[in-house]
Amino acid sequence: MGRARLRDLGISVGLLPTGPLNAITDVAGVRVGHATVIHDKPSVARTGVTAIWPGGDDTWERAVFAAYHSFNGNGEMTGTIWIDEQGLLASPFCITNTHSVGVVRDALVAYAVKHNVPQEWHLPVTAETYDGWLSDAESFPVTQGHAFSALDTAAAGTVAEGNVGGGTGMICHDFKGGIGTASRVVATAGATFTVGALVQANYGARELLRVDGVPVGREIGTDEVPGERHAPKTDGSIIVILATDAPLLPIQCKRLARRATSGLAWVGGIGSNGSGDIFLAFTTGNRVPRNTPIVATRMMAPDHMTPLFQAAAEATEEAILNALTAAETMTGFRGRTVHALPLDRLQAVMRKYGRLR
Length: 357
What we know:
Blueprint: E1 31-39, E2 45-53, E3 62-73, H1 80-86, E4 88-89, E5 93-97, H2 101-114, E6 126-129, H3 144-153, E7 171-172, E8 175-176, E9 178-188, E10 191-202, H4 216-219, E11 237-244, H5 250-258, H6 260-267, E12 276-289, H7 306-326, E13 330-331, E14 337-338, H8 343-352
Parallel strand pairs: 5-6, 11-12
Antiparallel strand pairs: 1-2, 2-5, 3-4, 3-12, 7-8, 9-10, 10-11, 13-14
């Protein structure tokens, strides 16, 4: 059968309702773009760049509050020291492969210069997961032009998932992984807010994979769907981006970012020693204009944060599963093949456990 999103298969996870698109772009102002790099000559490339604009074109002039959390730190996300210091994010940011962090980070600086952004200096955010099993990472196929393309084509609306952008060559729970997204809507503090997640999933062992608590990875063994003999089994990485329109302060964004850990754990992530599990959360509910001496902000009372925590966990969980159900079987570097999660078998397993609608 063709690839599909989790809910299109009759499988739902979590309790909260989704946004209209069930995507990070359900948070108004958020835009996502991909540049996908696939070629076999002069080197084998299965890689790319994913770009996220957190607050629209005026992100440069009206920063958003942000924070990050490292569940396991064998990975990279540039710009986080400055985010820790001031709690602000004032530019678009990108996700790519491990060996392309430098060129993509520098491309963000060049993009700002090209567009005459009135900031004296730039410390942009670029995150990574390693795709060297399917892509010849040491050929350095990602260029400044690819980063520019992802930034220029970023849009609101439906987000492409699976083998796209930075997620092109990624592996998740010994199946093909990549980009996934989801959202949740919550009512709290007398208002309605959205929490959206986008993941680049490249982690996990087959036997740990669970869908709505069902041990799918153990039900669909390597005797049925082969795994690459020497592919990483538990190590790997995941980047989780959380967006919300709730009025949060930076410390509350950090609290939100931590909750991605729960969603990752529900699917089967354990934060193995070799895994880079790094999460970034930002809010469009407060904007900080550049060069404004005093800025009025709002914050949600701590007692009303719990629904947002649940939304972050649920959206992360479903975003990972959407990455798995969207991704397609891929053959790449040195003839290695990583197989997609078979959707008909997934449905059969969920039916067996009474979880299929």
